[in-house]
């Protein structure tokens, strides 16, 4: 059994816990809010979060307190907090659980953040498909408002924080923070050119912080137990705390597992998720959502912290770990993800909009055994001309599956192309015909 | 007209935002809920409420996959076909539904009851293969489950196999160590 103590999943791991306000309060819920609001200066709250080492759990891993610190100090107009609950990165399904099973944990984090950054309004931007999640959050907000944890003059401190749920409508790109802001403003979700950053020009051009659900859910615990306690968990000094990793694919027990950062992929896959589902051994895994380059069994002992995974040539990203067994075609797998990115490209930048279409066409041709030797060069060339040449990180993300499978499993691409060429020799013309 | 039926809801939505245009997607959802899809008349009316031009409304509507500009079936089946679900059999699920309903992705049954669509990741990767039907998720699908879901929806309009508040793996009572 795991030796560590869960933090974020602790309450919901108790059988029968429904996440209602009285139950949350019974576990010490809203104590952090009572101890902070009106008693500790907002700047000191930010300092605590910086000291804890908490980094964003949405994908980029930016230090949370530092992000808050970028808000202008001399600006006295409205500021906003947006909670990024757009969870759309393939392989990731933790925020859904955090919101639906323990909504007040995240709401308390939202109020604490608003207090620290001086925001009186917070919007929870939740992906449109999470209809149940949105309903649960709205009920929880009503409960919290009635109990005086949300709204005007919270607990008699004079602090005002209003929280609203805003549903997206089906667009992966709205998880990118500036696309999220555009979408929240009622527009197409096209990422903005940065700078300026949301910290100065965010929602309605006002200073804005965008934080992920899991990031916010950590805050009450950091406040209650102290930044030093948090900073000692995981893989300090750079990857502190736990992560809720989402395990999917060919394992015995897929699901959400909260573990301290810095355990190895081997531990997560073979101890927590029960190992491979059959006798077929592990062939490949994606360590941090669809945007993270594929890794191989040689990387099983890599530590699951931001730096170690980056050093191994991938990224910890959103925490979605997808396992593939021997027998899975890596070219097919890369095509499936490429089809996702092609579908989700917002169309703002030409390299991504046009390039994703060309990549999908080339990959489909190879998988259908109609590829040509020069296709591999075409793929590499396209990828190099997309990555780093777009307004947002989507361009880098979409080339990750192809670039990494070409690196580790080039022979599989070649085998499909050789088959195509052989078929072409025997039946001239056949290999270039459509379906 | 939306305003006649939903004035209270519209006022409530407008009160949440300091800038009117932010209410666009919530109002479009209201129109879709009212009519099953978003009509041109609704877009024009919403443009009027928000002081936008109809093209500004249209350009937003066409960006988002969940906003329908055409009628869909009473039950809109959306099967996830992204890699994580595909690894555990989503292509087979799509085949089962195609066989049972006699329609291909993108089509609606002649009685107008079911529309089948394949979609990208719905954030249920650990409990795939999965599908969403209207507002509800159905996860860890098997052929038997798919059959029961479709039959239940057809006969009663609802199905108890839908996922409630999500947690996976489910919490277990810790057994005492031997």
Write up this protein:
- The complex is a heterodimer of chains A (435) and B (178).
- Chain A is α/β, with parallel strands linked by helices and 435 residues long.
- Chain A has three domains: 11-232, NADH-ubiquinone oxidoreductase 51kDa subunit (Rossmann fold); 238-325, Ubiquitin-like (UB roll) (Roll); 330-432, NADH-ubiquinone oxidoreductase 51kDa subunit, iron-sulphur binding domain (de novo design (two linked rop proteins)), CATH 1.20.1440.
- Helices cover 43% and strands 12% of the residues of chain A.
- Chain A contains 17 helices and ten strands.
- Chain A has helices at 21-26, 31-36, 42-52, 64-69, 94-101, 103-117, 131-146, 177-184, 213-225, 227-231, 265-272, 306-311, 330-344, 350-367, 374-386, 394-408, 410-426; strands spanning 80-85, 121-126, 162-167, 208-212, 234-235, 239-240, 242-249, 255-260, 282-286, 320-325.
- In chain A, the strands form three sheets. Chain A has a four-stranded parallel β-sheet, sandwiched between helices. Chain A has a four-stranded mixed β-sheet with strand order 8-7-10-9, with helices on one face.
- In chain A, strand 5 and strand 6 (239-240) form a beta hairpin.
- In chain A, helix 13 (330-344) packs antiparallel against helix 16.
- The longest helix of chain A has 18 residues, at 350-367.
- Chain A is globular.
- The termini of chain A are far apart.
- The model of chain A has no long low-confidence stretch (mean pLDDT 96).
- With 178 residues, chain B is of the alpha+beta class.
- Chain B has two domains: 2-61, NADH-quinone oxidoreductase subunit E (Arc Repressor Mutant, subunit A, Orthogonal Bundle), CATH 1.10.10.1590; 75-156, Glutaredoxin (3-Layer(aba) Sandwich), CATH 3.40.30.10.
- Chain B has helices at 2-14, 24-35, 40-50, 54-61, 83-86, 90-101, 143-156; strands at 75-80, 114-119, 131-133, 136-138.
- Chain B has a four-stranded mixed β-sheet, covered by helices on one side.
- In chain B, strand 3 (131-133) and strand 4 form a beta hairpin.
- In chain B, helix 3 crosses helix 4 (54-61).
- The mean pLDDT of chain B is 95.
- At the A-B interface, helix 5, helix 7, strand 3, strand 7 and strand 10 of A face helix 2 and helix 5 of B.
